[in-house]
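for the recovery benchmark. tokens below, seq after
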């Protein structure tokens, strides 16, 4: 029996897209309408479903139409979800807002200004994992199983990192730290570094290792590491890592600053003692002051533009005159911030505070 190969592919990829969609209706009527919309977009390609060449034809069509298929699927989802083939029974945006309110009420973390699309994709992972069919159902899961919050926060917060991530960034950071050390000589004041959004401590400890290596003058310094994930902060304070997290660390540094037991790498006290971990919510908590450098990498992408502006403004006031701000290589400093920060390293996204006269 001959079948339209493209229709089968479109249905497969549509189902994959909809499996993590909880902000729109995904009932059978809506799915049928979306599929019908998609099928009309492509010229049918027929073949016998038991033909030996069927799978080869599928692969060829995926390769040929992959971009067009995914673009058309997004278009179909948007079009049909805005004009469903039946009266709408749920206000899914209201349900999503209720979920965010519940998280804020229970855990004190306000995600309302985070990038909404990213939030939905991450929350969808837990909605699906708990076999909930809507945000409302998932809200009941949170109410009945407090441990689910731990799993939710694992996907909502940025807690995956490694030592000396993006090594070119660390070359620039080391150069700037050498300059800061030289400028602090004979001043009798501490050099203060802040790792904002520190996850499990890899970045903060990387800063500490560099400082231990280059601070020949013995300038007093302190590294502050903050995050909103209390479990991550606890792990960071313990300072125990596996090989994957430490794969970028030079062999000499591993031997000098870690104790290796089996497949675990333990940070030595000489490094742990110069890092102070604290809970800090970048949206609502008071910021640290008199910082010489702030690293906040791969965090801005989760915030709306308005929130980015607020955070950058707070970072500006946290930094000493001439202090440095390091953001993620995939991020861009909001345009308004260019008035108060000058670009030091475009490739590695490093900026310096400009004094406002």
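predicted aa per position
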């Amino acid at each position: 029996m001959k079948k339209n190969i493209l229709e089968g592919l479109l249905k497969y990829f549509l189902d994959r897209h909809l499996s993590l969609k909880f902000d729109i209706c995904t009932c059978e009527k809506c799915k049928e309408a979306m599929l019908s919309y998609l099928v009309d977009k492509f010229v049918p390609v027929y073949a016998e479903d038991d033909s030996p060449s069927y799978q080869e034809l599928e692969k060829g069509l995926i390769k040929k139409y992959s971009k067009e298929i995914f673009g058309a699927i997004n278009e179909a989802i948007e079009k049909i979800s805005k004009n469903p083939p039946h009266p709408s029974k749920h206000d899914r945006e209201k349900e999503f807002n209720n979920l965010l309110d519940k998280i804020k009420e229970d855990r004190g973390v306000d995600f309302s200004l985070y990038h909404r699309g990213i939030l939905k994709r991450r929350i969808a992972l837990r909605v699906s994992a708990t076999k909930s069919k809507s945000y409302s159902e998932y809200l009941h899961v949170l109410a009945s199983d407090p441990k689910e919050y731990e799993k939710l926060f694992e996907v909502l917060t940025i807690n995956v990192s490694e030592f000396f991530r993006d090594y070119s960034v660390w070359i620039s950071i080391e150069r700037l730290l050498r300059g800061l050390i030289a400028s602090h000589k004979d001043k009798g004041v501490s050099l203060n570094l802040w790792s904002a959004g520190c996850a499990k401590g890899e970045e903060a400890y990387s800063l500490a290792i560099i400082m231990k290596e280059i601070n020949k003058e013995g300038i007093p310094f302190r590294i502050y590491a903050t995050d909103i994930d209390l479990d991550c902060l606890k792990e960071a304070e313990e300072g125990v890592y596996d090989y994957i997290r430490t794969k970028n660390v030079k062999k000499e540094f591993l031997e000098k600053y870690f104790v290796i037991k089996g497949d675990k790498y333990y940070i030595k006290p000489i490094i742990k003692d110069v890092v102070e971990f604290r809970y800090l919510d970048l949206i609502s908590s008071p910021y640290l002051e008199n910082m010489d450098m702030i690293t906040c990498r791969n965090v801005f992408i989760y915030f709306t533009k308005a929130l980015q502006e607020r955070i950058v403004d707070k970072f500006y006031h946290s930094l000493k005159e001439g202090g440095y701000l390091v953001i993620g290589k995939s991020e861009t400093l909001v345009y308004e911030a260019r008035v108060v920060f000058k670009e030091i390293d475009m490739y590695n996204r490093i900026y310096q505070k400009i004094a406002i006269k």
